[in-house]
Amino acid sequence: MDNTISREHETALPPESPTHEGVCLRGVTKTFPGVRALSEVDFDCAPGEVHALVGENGSGKSTLIKVASGVLTPDSGTVTIGGQRFTGGGVKHARQLGLATAYQDTALIADLSVADNISLSLNAIGMRKPADLDATLARFDLPFKQTDLVSRLGPGARQLLEVARAMVTEPGVLMLDEPTAALDMRLAAHLEELVKRACDEGTAVVFVSHRLAEVRRLADRLTVIRDGVRQGTFSSKDWEVADIVELMVGAPTELEFPKRATPTSTDLRLEVRELRGHEFGPVSLEVRAGEIVGVAGAEGNGQRALLRGIIGIDRQGGTVAVNGRSLHRVTPGTALAAGISLQSGDRAAESIFAPVSVMDNATAQLGPDAGPAGTSLLGRRRPAFAKASRDLGIVSASPFQPISSLSGGNQQKTVLARPSLKNPKVLIVDEPTQGVDARARLDIYRVLSAAADDGIGVLINSSDSAELEGLCDRVYVMSRGTVVTELSQPTTESEIVHSFVSATDAAEARGATDTARGSRWRRLLERGIAHVSTPVLLLLITILAFYAQSRSEFFWTTFNLSNLLLLSLPLAFVALGQQFNMLSRLFDLSIGSVMSLTVVIVSMTLPDLSSGSVLTTALALAGVVIAVGGFNSLLIVVLKVPAIVATVASMGIVQGIAILLRPEPGGVIAPEFVAGVVHGLGYIPYAFIGLVALTIGMEYWLYRRGRGLALRAVGYDGESAFRLGERVAWIQTGALMTCTLGAVIGGVFLAAQTGMGSNSVGAGYTLPCFAAVFLGGAVLTGGRGSFVGAMLGALFLATLDNVTPLLNIPDAWRQILYGLILLVAIAAYTSLARIRTKTR
Fold first, then answer.
1. Which of 31, 437, 540, 721 is most buried, with most CB under 10 Å away?
2. d(CA 69, CA 101)
3. b/e per residue, 330-353, with b = 16+ CB within 10 A?
């Protein structure tokens, strides 16, 4: 039978008619400014089948996946999931209809545990975590535990978790976007078994991959897409790899690896001796001039750590020499200066500067060639970029186009433009073709071969054994962090695979030797970092109190202690509100002005505690929460104005309103209210007891309830939370509104202390508020923090304010103490974070 694909095959096998289940897209069109990403595309997948979707990077595959998943809304066309019309509602609605997606770049929250990531996914669509999660995960035979942090997992393990998390919900439709791109052959085979099992259970599986050989093994049907247009749908028996590539590219394409002469030079470009570091070593290897040397091994056996160790990252010993010259004090900078160019396998996180132009990314390492005296001249960089674009085939609309808008293959070629322009002595590339299409893959192969032909020593790590076999002159095989064998001129892919499949996998070895005590220590340490502020602040408050008592007997009097707790209330409430913002990776500089406005309004509307006065005050303050919180949300969440700009603007507006309402201090706040706040249980005010109860409840909510987990997830990684169906905009809006509410409540207690209206009385709370939340474990990058810590931070600062007059400490020294204490708290958190990293 002639398997050559013809136009007849394309028309003979159109997409099937919509079924009562599965997924069906009809006439889907999606455009972006200047780009038509999809043009009237038809696609469907029936229950129990694997329908592969293939095409070049930038062909429209990811856009199609995102339309079906609810990430994007099509301009026209229809989407049907499980027999029901999908008319919008975002990712959450698509998932509730039964469609789950596992993304190539994963939607995992790295700073959460495996269990929390699964809980987050289930909570987003209203499902409960299984009572026995270990038993549920056992079905997938994953090489990690539910208590492990995702950041401790390797790329392959993370990809498996991404797929397993999608399958835990038992979806009717499973969309897999490049699921094996980061997997070695062993893990890829395991994933294939999971896919087959899902099909046997009646799941419709949409499979996107650049590895056409595995597509041929798995797929029942295959659809080719090019430039947003469907080129045809074919039966699994009616196509050959070369023919599909031709449809993808639009022209016949040579699929062979570049022909290279056997290198004969004995000059050593790179010499590594007894190198060791975190997760690897000791390792010795050599790369000669003109050689391409590979590093192979099962996922997690130290390959990536070795490449990073060569340029000094997490290196603990050993020597590195370039052209026979040993490098001293190896760092990424000194390694680059010596002629070693490393291109990371984590393209998005470590290789590209996403908002920056493609030209700036390509010429980032030009150095003196970019201009004299450290300058960067467009007249020098533009010709260099034009040459690299021609040589590497980089496709971009303009040199000034952001690299984030390019396809994965063009991003990778842009990264490889750096060493091509710098002409290093040693080129080290981690996963050179991960996630790129067939044509880009061949362009990259030619770049690496040309570099070797120019006398550069090339060292690559790849999870694709066929790639190692086709490119490399020699291959070092690693297991458990060390080289177990060296293959000279490997002749077959199976020879490479066999050399490491039989070796004990590093992850399994670590799991076998990891004692229960060690596991408990890691879990306690990981939890302790989130809550380290609580015991530290309690200790500091205790030390400060006893020291104050030793210098002044007045400190322990009931009058002073009651006054201290009352003074802490305004700062504590505003700190609790600000902690919501910090957890969601936001902050609000307008809280001091809001507190001042609150005091002004209370002084104008609450002359007594009559029902009319109380109702008027409550309505006015509710209006402040809605107006200020809503205004900040409009600017930050909807219009995407940076939080610092938006809240500085609202700070000025709110402060101006407070001045207009109360130009001079005045007004009387209900004496009964002022006196009532003081009442309590012994010397402890009832308001402070309520604060403590509220804080404990909020802490429980944050770390034990689904919405608290969602808040932390948005702070850690808002994009991943969005892909799971979390309403990120609503969560951030809620955080901003809660912060304003905290400032209003704090302002009410501040009004009880002042007894009259003042338009500037809250101004002094802005910086202490941030000091309190930072002491409570918050960070500007979001996700971390503790409400108990924030409350104790406020109490500590109030104690500091209380004792400094008793100890005759000048106000200037009090401010200095603020700064020093904050630095100590940050240093303690950073130290614990480093310890946690070393235990991974």
1. 721
2. 7
3. beeeebbebbbbbbbbebeeebbe
Say whether pLDDT at 603 is over 70. yes
How far apart CA 126 and CA 798 sit, in angstroms, is 42
Residue pointed to by tokens 């169906």:
725
**Exposed/middle/buried for residue 366 (C-beta within 10 Å: 0-12, 13-18, 19+):** middle
Element (H, E) at 265: none
pTM (2 d.p.): 0.80
H/E element, 287: strand 280-288
Under DSSP, the state recorded for 763 is G
Which residues, 6 or more positions from 565, have their beta carbon under 8 angstroms from its beta carbon? 683, 684, 685, 688, 795
Q: Render pLDDT for 82-124 as a digit per residue (tens, 0 to 9).
A: 999 998 889 999 999 999 999 888 899 988 999 999 999 999 9
Q: Confirm or reject CATH 1.10.3860 for domain 535-838, answering yes or no.
A: no
In this structure, CATH architecture of domain 268-503 = 3-Layer(aba) Sandwich (3.40)
Tokens of 112: 């959460």
Residue spans per domain, the chain: 7-249, 268-503, 535-838
How far apart CA 152 and CA 157 sit, in angstroms, is: 10
Token pair, residue 712, equals 């932390």
Pairing of β 426-430 and β 457-461: parallel
pLDDT digits 0-9 by tens, 405-452: 887 778 888 888 888 888 899 999 998 887 777 777 888 888 899 999
CB atoms inside a 10 Å sphere around CB 78: 14
Closest CA to 390 of 454, 446, 449, 455: 446
| 828: pLDDT strictly greater than 70 | no
pLDDT attached to residue 500:
59
Which position has the token pair 């674009």?
Answer: 389
Three-state DSSP string of 570-614: HHHHHHHHHHHHHHCCCCCCCHHHHHHHHHHHHHHHCCCCCHHHH
Contacts of 622 (CB under 8 A, 6+ apart): none
826 phi and psi angles, rounded to 5 deg: -65, -40
The per-residue pLDDT for 397 is 83
* Six-digit token string for 622: 């509710």
Condensed to tens digits (0 to 9), the pLDDT of residues 255-310 reads 578 888 888 888 999 999 999 998 898 999 999 999 999 998 877 788 989 999 99
Whole-Å CA distances, 318 to 310, 336, 486 = 10, 18, 20
Alpha helix positions (H), 106-259: 114-124, 133-138, 155-168, 185-200, 212-218, 241-249
Residue type at position 36: R
Mean pLDDT of 194-219: 90
Which CATH superfamily includes the segment(s) 7-249? P-loop containing nucleotide triphosphate hydrolases (3.40.50.300)
- The sign of the dihedral angle between the CA atoms of 643, 649, 653, 655 is positive
Give the per-residue SS3 of 199-215. Answer: HHCCCEEEEECCCHHHH
Q: Do domains 7-249 and 268-503 have the same CATH topology?
A: yes
Question: pLDDT grade, residue 514 (50/70/90)?
Answer: very low
CA–CA gap between residue 24 and residue 64 (Å, rounded): 11
